Amino acid sequence: MVDPDSNAHDGEADAAETQAAQSRPSSLSRPLSSTAVLGEGELAHTPLHYGSPLREQRALLEKGAIVDLAHLRILRLSGADRLTWLNSITTQKLDTLAPGVATETLVLDPNGRIEGWLKLVDDGETLWAISELRTDDTLEFLRKMVFMMRVTIEDVSDEFQCIGALVALPDSLPVTQLWTDPWPHIGTGSASYAQVDLGLGVAGEDHPGLETQFVIGIIARADLRATSANDFTMAGFDAWEALRIAAWRPGVNEIDHKSLVGELDLLRTSVHLAKGCYRGQEAVARVHNLGQPPRRLVFVHLDGSGHIQPEAGAEVLAEVRAAERSVGQLSSVALHWELGPIGLAVVKRNLSAEAQLSFDLGEDAARVVGAQETIVAPVREHDLDLPSRNRDVDMRNQNR
What we know:
With about 400 residues, the chain is α+β, with helices and mostly antiparallel strands. It has 2 domains: about 35-265, Probable tRNA modification gtpase trme, domain 1 (Gyrase A, domain 2, 2-Layer Sandwich); about 295-380, Aminomethyltransferase beta-barrel domains (Elongation Factor Tu (Ef-tu), domain 3, Beta Barrel), CATH 2.40.30. It is built from 8 helices and 18 strands. Strand 1 and strand 2 form a beta hairpin. The longest helix is centred in the first third of the chain and has 17 residues, at about 5-20. The N and C termini lie far apart (about 65 Å). The model is unreliable at about 1-5 and about 15-20 (pLDDT under 50). It holds the Pfam family GCV_T. It comes from Brevibacterium aurantiacum.
């Protein structure tokens, strides 16, 4: 008898193999005795941890540890029109981007859904872009949009590699270009959707992202081959992710086929609301000026008493109208060295901010419960000075 799910499983396996094949091995040399535990799929060559994930988080925070980010793709855009051209087709204002200033921008579909995500820094002659989300699709779109502009786009992931850290990378690493995460500061022309600083022009004092300054260095692989992991304090990608989640920093895990920028509070660093037209701009403006995002990002404190945690992708359940219903998806999960089990989830906007969340682990395992902490506000007020209706000329519904 044929398993009806066999084709689906084969497809998932093929996708995982394709991702692993596209993933590039790290050029940071390691001794044969390395304790690095590698991931799967796109993370097949990225060390998740070196045996002590919690200690590695503290090492990142306090001891200048570095993180091997071998899975990140690196694009190099050159040509006189590189900034004005990318400014015209993505969400961020880039035509006046100064050398050395780090930012990020999004590629949207016509309905405002996120398709690509680039971390950017320009050196005065070249625009460097770090990509982790649907890079091949993003490259295809960018190349189709060049037309007659003076822009050359190269995927230089075979020549360069990313290394991450907090605050600064060791001086001994020969960094070609450094990207400093603008999160959680609110950029000029941008806006916050987070409850803690809603309506403010700067990040609120209580925003946890202010405690964590991520940096990513772009380094030539030839230079990395001449170094050894033994020369540095190393932390795995799991530690990087745990600190990202604690900082309320959305990542690629939070993005699915229907993600909008407002749902994830990405306007604060990725979108300029007063720049020229780009694909998806109308949808962004409509939600920002007139509507509410249909979903919202929340931070989740998970119950760790059972020592079993839900995995990323788990369905979020909550009591709605006297019945337990699906209200979203757990997108990222980690064990934090101070906070314990934590996660980020994307839930329905109208879910009560006080609702207790639960996660079904399947089989005979007890459910794990979680308490949500609001990140994206359930309701944003719109500050619009709309013209009043002139009833002398507007005859609609006059007889009602």
